[in-house]
Amino acid sequence: MTAQKIALITGASRGIGAATAMLFAERGYAVCINYLSNSAAAEQIEQHIVQRGGRCISVKADVSNAEDVSKLFGRIDAELGRITVLVNNAAILSTQCRLEDISEARFSHVLRTNLLSCFLCCKEAVKRMSSRHGGTGGAIVNVSSLAARTGSPNEYIDYAASKGAVDTLTRGLALEVASEGIRVNGVRPALIYTDMHASGGEADRVTRLKSNIPMLRGGQPEEVALAIFWLASEQASYVTGSFIDAAGGL
Ligand code: NAP
């Protein structure tokens, strides 16, 4: 019998992360759902998975905090086993505005949540997956954004800059660990129907902008989850340092 694969999805209480956690569970993975504060939403996803016979834990942890990340990986080691897939999905954005109205505190908070979190989680994952450290390999998928390419002028340059850096981290780490059994790739969504747009002050942003999308519609979280799953799976065994845009043609 082959050992069950284990996936950590950060920010999995809602949106793209929740859809990804449910997809991995459906495809036979034991899943760790990480979240920041919304315990009720995380429990709902956990219940969904457990009721269908899946193995799942949910862990509250701020992935921008090194101590929290260390405890999060400790829980996975103890309760599920050695991680095989890491999906760095947790991220935030703030109210739409111009650069001169972004405070230093906001810039720093966005960078810590969106970028430092990836760095911290990748570090813990590499220590467990890399053949250099006695691991048997694994896959990391970083959820970036098309904003890394557009720069999000007049909306959230801080968010876009954090995602540009996530893409650079993805490429660099992919090359660093390519010979150690770890593949690292990225998915760049755009205009997906989730709660995130409400944080920017415009809950209906996808509906407003959908006529600009070549496919003339916004995306669903499940469509992004499928791209993430594919990159993490054996189907993508020769793919590393690459990106899939899940953006309707944008
Ligand atoms: P979302 O609906 O706003 O959900 C964000 C998730 O991240 C929640 O589960 C939240 O937990 C968690 N989270 C936030 N800060 C955290 C922290 N410090 N530690 C741990 N968890 C944290 O977001 P989404 O739209 O699904 O976005 C998922 C990913 O896709 C993000 O990387 C985002 O940048 C990217 N993306 C989304 C879109 C889009 O159109 N939606 C477009 C491009 C890229 P709580 O529930 O506890 O708050």
UniProtKB/TrEMBL annotation:
Q: Does the keyword Oxidoreductase apply?
A: yes
What does the UniProt keyword field contain? Oxidoreductase
Instruction: Offer one Pfam family short name for this entry.
Output: adh_short_C2
| Entry superkingdom | Bacteria
InterPro entries linked: NAD(P)-bd_dom_sf, Sc_DH/Rdtase_CS, SDR_fam
Q: Which NCBIfam families match?
A: PRK06123.1
What family is this? Belongs to the short-chain dehydrogenases/reductases (SDR) family.
Which protein, by its recorded name, is this? SDR family oxidoreductase
Q: Which organism is it from?
A: Simiduia curdlanivorans
Instruction: Give the lineage.
Output: Bacteria, Pseudomonadati, Pseudomonadota, Gammaproteobacteria, Cellvibrionales
